[in-house]
Protein backbone atom coordinates (compact mmCIF):
# COMPACT_ATOMS: atom_id res chain seq x y z
CA UNK A 1 0.00 0.00 0.00
CA UNK A 2 1.31 3.45 -0.91
CA UNK A 3 1.06 6.46 1.39
CA UNK A 4 1.93 10.09 0.73
CA UNK A 5 3.60 12.37 3.29
CA UNK A 6 3.00 16.11 2.91
CA UNK A 7 5.87 18.39 3.92
CA UNK A 8 6.39 22.13 3.82
CA UNK A 9 10.01 23.12 3.22
CA UNK A 10 12.16 26.08 2.20
CA UNK A 11 12.84 27.11 -1.41
CA UNK A 12 15.89 24.80 -1.57
CA UNK A 13 13.83 21.80 -0.36
CA UNK A 14 16.43 20.81 2.24
CA UNK A 15 15.63 17.92 4.58
CA UNK A 16 16.55 20.03 7.62
CA UNK A 17 13.73 22.49 6.93
CA UNK A 18 10.91 19.94 6.44
CA UNK A 19 7.76 20.23 8.53
CA UNK A 20 5.32 17.32 8.27
CA UNK A 21 1.68 18.31 7.71
CA UNK A 22 0.07 14.91 7.27
CA UNK A 23 -0.08 11.44 5.78
CA UNK A 24 -2.57 10.74 2.98
CA UNK A 25 -3.74 7.75 0.96
CA UNK A 26 -3.62 9.59 -2.40
CA UNK A 27 -1.38 12.28 -3.87
CA UNK A 28 -4.47 14.26 -4.92
CA UNK A 29 -5.67 14.53 -1.30
CA UNK A 30 -2.22 15.67 -0.18
CA UNK A 31 -2.10 18.37 -2.86
CA UNK A 32 -5.67 19.47 -2.08
CA UNK A 33 -4.81 19.81 1.61
CA UNK A 34 -1.68 21.83 0.78
CA UNK A 35 -3.74 24.24 -1.32
CA UNK A 36 -6.45 24.52 1.34
CA UNK A 37 -3.85 25.27 4.06
CA UNK A 38 -1.96 27.65 1.69
CA UNK A 39 1.38 25.95 2.42
CA UNK A 40 3.11 27.09 -0.77
CA UNK A 41 4.19 30.72 -1.11
CA UNK A 42 7.24 32.72 -2.18
CA UNK A 43 9.29 31.58 0.85
CA UNK A 44 8.23 27.94 1.08
CA UNK A 45 7.45 24.95 -1.10
CA UNK A 46 5.43 21.76 -0.73
CA UNK A 47 6.93 18.29 -1.07
CA UNK A 48 4.81 15.12 -1.29
CA UNK A 49 6.82 11.92 -0.78
CA UNK A 50 5.45 8.53 -1.78
CA UNK A 51 6.24 5.73 0.66
CA UNK A 52 5.34 2.06 0.90
CA UNK A 53 3.63 0.87 4.07
CA UNK A 54 5.47 -1.69 6.27
CA UNK A 55 8.91 -1.18 4.71
CA UNK A 56 11.81 -0.03 6.84
CA UNK A 57 13.85 2.62 5.00
CA UNK A 58 15.21 6.13 5.38
CA UNK A 59 12.87 8.88 4.19
Automatic annotation (TrEMBL):
Domain of life: Bacteria
Species per Swiss-Prot/TrEMBL record: Flavobacterium hiemivividum
Protein name: SPOR domain-containing protein
